[in-house]
Fold this protein.
Amino acid sequence: MSNVQRQREIFEAALAALPAEREAIVHQLAQQDFALAEAVLALLATDADAAINPGAGAAMAPVQKMLQSLTLQTPAHLGERDWIGQQIGPYQVQAELGRGGMGVVLLAQRTQGDFAQAVAIKVVHGIVDQQAKARFSRERELLARLNHPNIAKLIDGGELTCGQPYLVMEFVPGLPLCTWMQTQRPSLVLRLEVFRELCSAMQHAHQHLIVHRDLKPANVLIDEHNRPKLLDFGIARLVDQSIGEHATTERMMTLAYASPEQLRGGMATTASDIYTLGLLLYEILVGESMRSEQESHANRSFISKKPSDRARLVADASIRDQAGRLRGDLDHIVLKCTRTEAAERYVSAAAVAQDVTRYLQHRPLESRRGELRYAVWKFIRRNPLSVASFGVLMLALSWFSVQLKLERDRAQTAAVIATEQAELAKQTTQYLVTLFKSADPANARGKELSAREVVDRGFASLKASPLDSPTVRAKLLATFGEIYLEIGMPEPALAGLEQALQLLPVGEAYDLERALIFEHLSNAQQGANQIPAATQSAQQAQTIYETKRGKQSIEVARVLIRLGIYEQSNDQFSQARLLFERALEIAQAQPGQRDMVAEALQFLGVGAARTHQLELAERYLREALTIKRAALGSDHPRTLDTLQALTVVLGRKGDIPAWDAVAKELTEGRKRVHGPDSSPYFQSLFARVSLLSYQLELRAAESLAREMIAGFDKLSAEPLMEDTLAYDSLANVLEERGEVAEALVWQQRAVDVLSNNQALQSKTAFALRLRLAQLQLHGKQAIARQQAEQLLADVLRADQAQPARTTNLDRPQASLDALEARLLIRRIDDSAASPHDNEQAQLWLDQLQRLRGRTSPLWLLRALEFAEHDSNPQRALTNLQRWRAYAKNLPLLDAKYAIAIAERRIALQPNDTNVRRQAGALVAPFAPALRGELAPGSALLLRLEALLKR
Amino acid sequence: MTSDNITELLAAWRSGDASAQMRVSTLAYDRLKALAVQRFARESSAENMLQPTALVHEALMRLWGADATPNDRQHLFALASMHMRSILFDHARARLAQKRGGSAFKVTLGVLAEGSADSAQDAVDFMALEQAIQRLESEDSRTAKMLCLHYFGGLDQREIAEQMLLSLTTVERGLRFARAWLKDALG
């Protein structure tokens, strides 16, 4: 299948879904192919634009006409025949009930026989292809197997004279589920009764080996007795049916209610129906679909699956007031139905129904057994009056005797540990005293001790001193390990923690301590850049927590996030995402773990950003930010970390107003929290420097960049990673101002610092090396070319060194670096370029656009360079005009584009005075700003003056 | 003009009724002319330009000149769309050749331009459009076919669906895809 065909298939599937769903669906369907997804998203954006303004943006007249002609009339209905009054078999049609994707549903009455019977008749409309016929006869066959009070019955079926097949169904005089909820305002209990009956209908179908695959509110009618009927088994299939037709029909389901495995294009199973039941329950409880995205909600649906969270935010006051009743059990049922992993969901629809029943009876849910506090609370809730009576109390006690014994055992172990805690506290105090004594100048032979020396001394004396309890020694060693970690010394931390692990007594009683030490060890190993070892340690901790605390415990979630971070640092983004999502699921299922939820979201956001899914990244990060602001406050360093990640994403998107606002907030926050002389504050200035230069305030940007470098210098004499980035930042501004020579010096310095640290192969280094090579272009082309080629080779080698399981989704950064390097080489070789080479470059440029997004400043800059060197003047001009539209919020780029466009126009019609005048007028508005901000003699300024002179 | 009429006339023609061809031509002409005016013409008045009328005449001549007789109405317009496209393409190419040859003699097409610099520009643009359609044909022939039936043949969505044996929804989404794809490809 060609690339365009794949794009079209995904495009069409996305159109079938709600707008809010589309991005997710595209990513799901294109799972293995990131560039494909971006291409489709771009097409969808164009489609959305075109619906409003068909010809806009198209420079060419015939194209404009074509696009306008394609602005489509509302689709005409196929087979638009008037059904009313027609005779179908023994039935006479009385009204049209509705139309769907493949058929029309008619209300008809039986006119033969003694009594009048109303039926619903479903007819395929339009041209009937063989597939549609096959689907229809299968629906008939499947329905014939079912006999359940909550499933609309099949009465008859046949073919019209023209060959169109039809089905005669029981007519259900009732309301669609959503309308019923809005107009009848049923109580929570009644709504749950309805849901229970739906579960029972689904169970019946599953028992007959039929998977519905298209459960949604529109397929549920509620009759006047408030009983639901399940309709439309149009795309249902047998559980064991061969998957011959699977590909086509799977795509016909309503994506908004599809399970993750269906979205991925996998087979729908009974577990998929369970998932959809969960979505339906959510909607029944909240009155809104889980996946519907409502901008007014601060807490967006794709993040919290808990109905109680959403219910608090809906407009409907009667639902809002009951939000509290949803918390706990009903949250739990929805979450358990909608687990991403099919195996973790309820085993059957009957099991869902059973838990709903138990909820209605105030009895403990089957699936929450074993939570002692939960069970007792449920017991009291169920027996509010009799709980005080002796008999019931005895009963309760005997019921829980097993659990109580377990609790007691735990308590005894706790006593032992408490004694050791006390001992530990005493010992620690003694050590601290010793430490501070040695830090006292009097004891230190006249010279001041650094923090590190103080800790070193303590550590050494701990090793030398005899201690009674190995446990205490182990814990002290672990404490030192942590201190070393805190002061950024992973190696001694490793030694301490490994020793602590050996000393800790064997036995389950110490397992949790062991797990904690493993976590710290893992942290230290990461610090020492030993990622495989760090992963192993974290997995050890995970195993312990899973046995001691349960697979759904918050400790497990914490370790999963850690493991995800390691995968992310290896560019294993798909793997990392799975881990973060599992952590998120666990954290969301537990009360009071909001900041763990936010943590998982933040890393999901960072992962999305690093795979260039910027929209998704922004949503994750904003959600994390909302939670952190509520849980930790706006000025908490961790809240500011999220804000910083968001700043980066907005900058890359080129969303200038939002970027500006968030960057300001970040700078002010860092200043308040960390102080004006702190590294976090200086780091927060990166975004401001970029913003100022894009806003054509280059002088201000330059002085801010210099301020930043001076700040970092004051903090540490030895240049660190931050310093190199600051050099890069300044070099960038200087280049824009036209101070190329000085820019080169700073950029070279940045690369030198990295090579001193043997970090030349890191991704940051790739970016800096690329910019160095670009700067060389101003003079030494040969050097630039050589540097770019070396860089390309390094990028490709690094990419090949990735583990085999790396998917395409995982390597956008590598392809991006490679693309940039290739484009640069292409640009250097431009003079010798053949038309073929130009097309190749255009292709690379397109790929780059898909990765970076078309409003991204970095892409716009590259596109500009490409057009300026394009040997085809007409294409260059068209491209420049097209791309300039995306640069309108970026005055610096806008000015550069305007100048390039003016030059191209004059080159195309050199003798036309009119064109010259227009060209001058095009660039004149930028003249004051450019004259004020650029260095005299800068190339851009010269070009501007030349245009104005004519 | 009703759809059945053209189909019936075509059937009559196949079975030997020579006068049917003339009547089909008249019916088809009206519709293609309306299409040509709406889609391909600028307000043109210059004398030496090929008018929409000429475009349609030529398309019909090529249509009747071919061996195959259209099966029915849709088929007829599908064939006509092919001819309209190739005529437009030929003229655009000729116009560009003249321009390159530096011919001072202004022969241009009413269907493509209103004259002066714009006509050459339109020809350039039309070539770009044609190239994009060719690219689409090689990558996704179904979408390209839909697009041509609609644009050059004037078939509406229902007619395209019938002609290509597809559902209406498929056609609607397919054309939306074509529109977005073209817009991205050509700006």
Summary: Strands of chain B lie at 49-50, 108-109.
